[in-house]
Design brief:
Number of helices: 9
Bound molecules: fe (iii) ion, zinc ion
Radius of gyration: 18 Å
Amino acid sequence: MIIGSHVNFGKKQLLGSVEQALSYGANTFMFYTGAPQNTFRSKLDPELTKQALSLMQENNISLDHIICHAPYIINLANKDNLSSWQFSINFLKNEIKRVQEIGCKYIVVHPGNYLKMSLDIALNNIIEALNEVLDSDDNVMVLIETMAGKGTECGRCLEEIKTIVKGIKKQELIGVCLDTCHLNDSGIDLNNFDQYLDDFDQNIGIEKIKCLHLNDSKNSIGSHKDRHANLGYGTIGFNTLLNIYLNPKLKDVPKILETPYVGEYAPYKIEIDMLKNKTFNPNLNSYFNTDENFGKYS
Ligand code: FE
Ligand code: FE
Ligand code: ZN
């Protein structure tokens, strides 16, 4: 299985990301090229990248499986604010250049927020923006993420994802990233995940799924909230998530944990072990010093 988590991209850049992934027992990872909340990006250090790539090679982490995630604050839907829309497009273009420099093949992007626009106009703006972003010689595939439908998020159902994907000219450079927390919160019953995959296949094509974010949810199905929980500590439950993890149709798709830290500690080694052992670990908090509310969801 191809399993990892999101990791930091700090002073040691990609090298730090790889070291972190290895410490979790992961064979892939997802990184931001800077802080996910802002668009400040420092220059890539080629020496650190080189060291990172050889460390990946030594440990059989394939460049074909690592994923980059664009920052949350870019909004490809909001053409009403032309300068911020253009900024989002340019930022994403630059981010793709950086990712390409590393050799990473996929970048996950949140479709955008429709704010006060009509949904149709917003979806068209996203399509226009992505067609402009992908209009270069770069070879990085943009993966639009399925969203929870919090606020005015676009991409909260198959129809919206389908509209965006079908609007892209360079079909070879557009894909989809499923997020189990978001799917649950958007109203999909993940106990019938095969049904969802069939619907996805009929509408978009299952081969477009290039990444899966494996998260439990703190909220109930259809809540449109988007708060991630640790595996088995949310409303989706460990067995349902394990079945998704093991689904043969997504065998070659990288699975990425974006579950919350336990206190100040990353839980990924233990959660990855749970998946490898196919067994829920009810004592996640005992590894860390945490408060008594751990694992309780709203
Ligand atoms: Fe995301
Ligand atoms: Fe996600
Ligand atoms: Zn989320």
